[in-house]
Amino acid sequence: xxxAIAAGCDGFEFDVRYxxxxxxxxxxxxxxQGLPLASSDAAVxxxxxxxxxxxxxxxxxxxxxxxxxxxxxxxxxxxxxVIEALQRTPPQKGFLVSSFYPEILTRLRALxxxxxxxxxxxxxxxxxxxxxxxxxxxxPRHDFLxxxxxxxxxxxxxxxxxxxxxxxxxxxxxxxWGIDGIIxxxxxxxxxxxxxx
Length: 197
Description:
Structural class: alpha/beta
Distance between the termini: 26 Å
Order of helices and strands: HEEEEHEHEHEHEHEHEH
CATH class: Alpha Beta
Radius of gyration: 17 Å
């Protein structure tokens, strides 16, 4: 996260799951060092060096005034506490709560009608779904993008961002299509692609 900001990027994306005792931990996979997150308490999620698995509140406190945050919810069930954390420490540089799961987005919208939501997809059947979701941002994987999709999203008043783009030529092509944001594994390359002289 610090690396992305230091490289010059506007913000970063991160994944959130929740533990048995309701902590919103940052982790992509359902297990952490062999422990299923959904059936483990946050207190046991500590590495050998004593560091604990980061939680959403940590990121909000550290970066809410410094970065655009794309908060991806990986599982259904802890939407209320995510909203409460955002209300306690509102991101000042913009943010998005995104998910692959329409039911998560629908639940979030029911809880907070003003929350900026984004739908992530990487499969062919998803385009039939996004048009009826309560979203502000569409996030297709980059190989599902086309100029027509960018134009349609914009015509509907949506932003469109994409992932995971690690090739400068592809970044340039997507920018020409009018993409609003690019997520990359290489923040330095992403920044340099658009800021080289």
